[in-house]
Automatic annotation (TrEMBL):
Gene3D superfamilies: 1.20.1280.50
Top-level taxon of the source organism: Eukaryota
Name listed for the protein in its UniProt record: F-box domain-containing protein
InterPro entries: F-box-like_dom_sf, F-box_AtFBL13-like, F-box_dom, FBD, FBL60-like
Source species: Brassica campestris (Field mustard)
PANTHER family membership: RNI-LIKE SUPERFAMILY PROTEIN
Amino acid sequence: MAPRKVETGGRDLISSLPDELLSEILYLLPTQTAASTSILSKRWKNLLPLVHNLDFDKSTMVFASLISRTLVLLGDSPIHKFSLEWKSEKAQHLIYPLIYNALQREVLELHLISPKRQFVPSELFFSKTLVKLTLTLGCFARRNDNLVLDQQVWGSSIKRITTFYRSCGLDDYSCFIFKTPSLVFLDYSSYVAQDYLVQFDDSLVEARLDIRLWKYYDHVLPLPISYGYQLSKHGERGWQVLPLLLRKSPNLETLIINGLVHKITNLCGDVCVCDHGKMMRSCCLLSCRVKVLKVYGYEGSCGELNQMRHFLKNLRFLKLVKVKVQEQVNYLSLTNDLTKLLSTASSSNCKIQFI
């Protein structure tokens, strides 16, 4: 049977669609393509302000004039989400006005990406509407004083922050400062800094940190921790960030660790069994409300066993410990040793599960 043909009578079926549906179509298109429809007709030009999410990547940065014109075509319409990716430092004078424009439109989500070392304008942190912020690769936030190398993220309205720093200079990591009293979610990836200042209330629910140290050791296993902390390589600065995070995250319920091995230093926080001064003060784990602890890549060394004992003894709200034993190890012996540790757990309801 021959396929049926639809007679349109030469009519433009797209133009016959309602504005609400056309705006949804524009929303699904790349921002550059959506903006180009404005030349089709006055109706299409008027539809563009209905697109509230703008995404400009490195492939379209050569069309800086197009980006500026797109913002002009939007009129006074608000922007919900603004994503900008660029890689040339020479484009900095073009980037700042675009960011300012988005902030003036009370943008809710701002995502800035640049592989080159760039300092974003500190004015963006004075926004009272910004809820979600992403600073990736070379985008640094800092104070205007060039003599101060502290990287800062602050804002009373910000609830979700994603940062990914990969600068090669040690001076770029003197201190990281977070002043976000409404923060709920934090995803932070960077080389370890010399110091951290974290100021947020009890609102934080989830945090993912990937902290990389400056010295690397081939025999050391990585330790990524999701929801609470993530450490990929271990060197001379230990785990000093983890106690700070746990104290500031009373709602944290799940801690995931991939590899317990790390270099013992006098800079480790009291969350670590290698902190020799922990007996002189109250361990931060005692007030931590973590209920589920997941450990991957467990090899059963003496240090790992002691670390597990430390967790079980001090995590008073712990209900479940999930352990993934590393391959090519004595599985039965390791699981027996860990099972015996349950007798030292401060939580009588704690159970252990091997995955």
